[in-house]
Amino acid sequence: MRQQKIRGHKRRHRHIEEWRLENLNLRFDLIEKYNADHIDIVVHPWCDISIINSKIPEPKAKTKELMLSGLMDIYESWKKQLDELGQPYYLKIWLYEPRFSKSQLVCGIGEKIDYYENAFFKPGESKKLKPKNYGQLTGKIESFNWDYRVDEDLYENTEVGEPEMYASRQDYEDTKKWFAQLLKKPHRTNKFIEPIGDITESYSFKRGDIWLGGQN
Q1: Which of 120, 117, 90, 118 is nearest to 102 (CA)?
Q2: What is the sign of the dihedral through the CA atoms of 10, 14, 15 and 16?
Q3: What are the phi and psi torsion angles at 206 (to 5°)?
Q4: Is the distance from CB of 39 to CB of 24 less than 8 angstroms?
Q5: What values do phi and psi take at 20, rounded to 5?
Q6: 100 near 121, Cβ under 8 Å?
Q7: Mean model confidence pLDDT for the chain
Q8: Residue 107: strand, helix, or coil
Q9: Helix and strand numbers, DSSP H then E, in the chain
Q10: Rounded-to-integer distance, Cα 41 and Cα 9, Å
Q11: Does residue 172 register a pLDDT over 50?
């Protein structure tokens, strides 16, 4: 699959700044309703789904720096607002590599704290984030503490579904074949002690790294 060419970088950079400014205020209505809030990098075309049979390349250079700087600015703004609540909370930047455009800022209170603390697989190996890989943001990144996790794609044993869900029997057979081939690749298998409906197993495929960043 060919890569889509990104044009109009100055315009993208303006959009990044607009996105940053629009998200400096924590949405307390969501905190009250769901005990959580989060911010994705909602900047076109990285927040889009490609429909022209091409791959959207990950942000690079200044564009990537501006996005990460924006996440860190929003983090610091949210932290001040959460500190005023006077109760425990979870607030971390989820920094993905190489799937950087999936990076986000996540906040939770109450039961969401434990949920987010255990959201990702923690491997036995230990890796460290290299701040110098992020250009002019080195000093700002070093002001955060970063914990390593694994970026994985998750599938379940019910992924294929039933034949009647498909437009044709051939579509169903093709999906079965694709899933069987997928399970031959390296992955982790998690067997559920108590099934969730028909779900008895999940399969996790490593796609990269995640660093969870926060300040004390």
Answers
A1: 120
A2: positive
A3: -70, 130
A4: no
A5: -60, -50
A6: no
A7: 91
A8: strand
A9: 6, 6
A10: 16
A11: yes
Give the closest residue to 95 by CA, choosing from 21, 151, 23: 151
Peptide bond into 45 cis (omega under 30): yes
42-98: pLDDT as tens digits: 887 766 554 445 577 888 889 999 999 999 999 999 999 999 989 999 999 999 999
Per-residue pLDDT, 124? 87
Sequence-separated (6 or more) residues with CB below 8 Å from residue 140: 69, 72
What residue ranges in 113-198 does DSSP mark as E strands? 145-156, 188-196
Residue 142 neighbours by CB under 8 Å, 6+ apart: 131
- CA gap 8, 94 in Å, rounded: 27
Residue length of the chain: 216
Count other C-beta atoms under 10 Å from residue 215's C-beta.
13
93, β-bridge pairs: 105, 213
Query: Residue 156 corresponds to which tokens in the numbers above?
Result: 């379940």
Residue 12 structure tokens: 């993208």
Supply 127's token pair.
């890796």
Structure tokens at 96: 């993905």
Rounded percentage of the chain residues whose pLDDT exceeds 70: 91
